[in-house]
Amino acid sequence: xxxxxxxxxxxxxxxxxxxxxxxxxxxxxxxxxxxxxxxxxxxxxxxxxxxxxxxxxxxxxxxxxxxxxxxxxxxxxxxxxxxxxxxxxxxxxxxxxxxxxxxxxxxxxxxxx
Length: 113
What we know:
By secondary structure, the chain is mainly beta.
């Protein structure tokens, strides 16, 4: 299995109360997420950042949420699992969300080539 060691995406800005997909499996090519960075760009308000692993046809919910972290004002939190998060089926996604203020997200990892 060859891996593409390219960047998985760009910085995603998620506004308060919203979620967005940051990685989606295409053509059953596995995605391995090594880390997720969440930066609270507010200088005043503490943010809450969420990470969801959503199967194809599923939805963002408490049952698909894997991480719920507090990010202090102007701070960055690194989520680095001991083993990469792997999503494998076409249409599976990793989605991120923000509560109380906007959060910038960036993910690192690999994709099957």
